[in-house]
Write a structure and sequence with these properties.
single chain, alpha+beta, 2 domains, 3-stranded antiparallel β-sheet, two-stranded antiparallel ribbon, 5 strands, elongated, disordered N terminus
């Protein structure tokens, strides 16, 4: 028999505890009975105890909080999906601009020139080109991180409510953008929930 060192056993226990608490929080985050405090941590408003259930919670209340979280998760992912083409277009155009600046700076003048001013111009153009490349990568990478997080957040919600037999189908009505404010109506059609259909307007700064 192999005996794990005490430190490894503690790490394994802490890891399991963290995983259990995270699984509980997926349910509790959607529930109107959730209470969180520095003193007690995550507790239930009905029992005044910490969550303790196996697969689903018999006391869970999926109402306004659940609806709002679900709507926000879906609209965030939808906006990212709509912006994906423009992000990629900006990325490729900035990349092309960066390479053109680098090439243009390289051939701006002969490397054997003796004018310090022209050297500064040459180096400045090439530096601007590399700056463009860095900006392009940074923006694309930032977008991908946001998209990955949005997909993961929605997946957590979907996996949780599926355990309660709840299904939904989202649709969106995008109004005209006015002064940088995008109005969106989020429509959700439900199966096996207290409401069959909901429509909620949102105003988003773009």
């Amino acid at each position: 028999m192999v005996h794990l060192p005490k430190t490894n056993r503690n790490r394994k226990t802490n890891s399991n505890l963290t995983e259990i608490l995270m699984n509980f929080s997926r349910h509790c985050d959607l529930c109107d009975n959730r209470i969180s405090s520095l003193e007690k941590g995550l507790t239930c408003n009905l029992t005044n105890k910490k969550p303790d259930f196996n697969n689903t919670c018999s006391k869970i209340t999926l109402d306004k909080k659940f609806q709002e979280i679900l709507e926000i998760a879906n609209i965030e992912l939808e906006i990212l999906r709509r912006n994906k083409k423009s992000i990629h277009w900006t990325f490729y155009s900035t990349i092309i601009g960066g390479f053109l600046l680098i090439i243009g700076g390289y051939f701006f003048s002969d490397w054997t020139i003796h004018s310090i001013f022209l050297w500064y111009v040459k180096i400045g153009i090439i530096g601007a080109g590399f700056t463009f490349l860095g900006i392009a990568y940074s923006k694309l990478n930032g977008f991908r991180k946001k998209e990955k997080k949005a997909r993961f957040d929605k997946l957590k919600i979907d996996e949780t409510i599926n355990k309660y037999g709840i299904e939904y189908n989202p649709s969106f009505d995008f109004e005209k953008k006015i002064h940088g404010i995008q109005e969106v109506n989020v429509n959700l059609e439900f199966k096996n929930w207290t409401k069959k259909r909901t429509t909620t307007p949102y105003k988003i700064n773009c």
